[in-house]
UniProtKB/TrEMBL annotation:
InterPro entries: EF-hand-dom_pair, EF_Hand_1_Ca_BS, EF_hand_dom, Parvalbumin. This is Parvalbumin. The lineage of its organism: Eukaryota, Metazoa, Chordata, Craniata, Vertebrata. Pfam families: EF-hand_7. It comes from Saguinus oedipus. Belongs to the parvalbumin family. Keywords: Calcium, Metal-binding, Repeat.
Length: 103
């Protein structure tokens, strides 16, 4: 399954383009722009599993830095600052990784 099976390709392109400048990434706006906010919990889990490159059931900090590439292969990497901000927002239990159900 690919990201475009779940999300509109044009929405992904617009969202990735909107945050092409270094340190401009805003996860809330990005996830809204790609249409993730309107998806069912099941579809959100499918997107999570696409982003979980090592299939560990978690998105670790090293995977998080490449999250935009999970939506579009030619997207930029997140900066260290952006990655840490996104990790802090998603890591509810403070274990340094994001689980499929949050935390």
């Amino acid at each position: 399954m690919s990201m475009t099976d779940l999300l509109n390709a044009e929405d992904i392109k617009k969202a990735v383009g909107a945050f092409s400048a270094a340190d401009s990434f805003d996860h809330k706006k990005f996830f809204q722009m790609v249409g993730l906010k309107k998806k069912s919990a099941d579809d959100v889990k499918k997107v999570f599993h696409i982003l979980d490159k090592d299939k560990s059931g978690f998105i670790e900090e090293d995977e998080l830095g490449f999250i935009l590439k999970g939506f579009s292969p030619d997207a930029r990497d997140l900066s260290a600052k952006e990655t840490k901000t996104l990790m802090a927002a998603g890591d509810k239990d403070g274990d340094g990784k994001i689980g499929v159900d949050g935390g």
